[in-house]
Specification:
Radius of gyration: 14 Å
Strand content: 25-35%
Number of helices: 4
Structural class: alpha/beta
Largest sheet: 5 strands, mixed
Strand order of the largest sheet: 4-3-1-5-6
Order of helices and strands: EEEEHEHEEHH
Number of strands: 7
Distance between the termini: 8 Å
Helix content: 25-40%
Length: 134
């Protein structure tokens, strides 16, 4: 599954969803995780809150989870409507540690929230709901 991390340095989860300058996108599976890309967002002056949320949703639209330090209520609602699960972690959490924890959860018995996300991803995979393949 693809997992995004809100970051300003590519190494730590240290950004609020709406202000994140980039997302580190990883592919995470039972056998490990790997960095796919750093998705940098363009800096747009005078962009309103809805525009910032839209551009970030566009950047992570193919992800299953988004790890953030903080997320506003309206952004969280829009993220979850897109079938992306927001996961809050402490400021400065190393991304590689979060990836390692996720891999360990996938190898064992995933917690209920993760099992639910995995089930939803499996159900949606065969359908090609958005025209893309997972």
């Amino acid at each position: 599954m693809k997992v995004a991390f809100a970051t300003d340095d590519g190494n730590r989860v240290n950004a609020h969803f709406g202000q994140s300058p980039m997302f580190a996108v990883y592919n995470v599976a039972k056998n490990g995780g790997e960095l796919l890309e750093l998705r940098k967002l363009p800096v747009l002056l005078n962009e309103d809150e809805a525009g910032r949320i839209d551009s970030r949703l566009e950047a992570i639209g193919d992800c299953t989870l988004i790890f953030i330090m903080q997320i506003g209520a309206s952004a969280a609602a829009r993220v979850t409507r897109r079938k992306i699960m927001p996961v809050k972690v402490p400021f400065g959490s190393p991304i590689d540690e979060q990836v390692k924890r996720l891999v360990e959860m996938l190898q064992g018995k995933p917690p209920m929230w993760l099992a639910k996300v995995l089930r939803a991803e499996e159900e949606g995979e065969g359908e090609g709901v958005d025209g893309t393949h997972g």
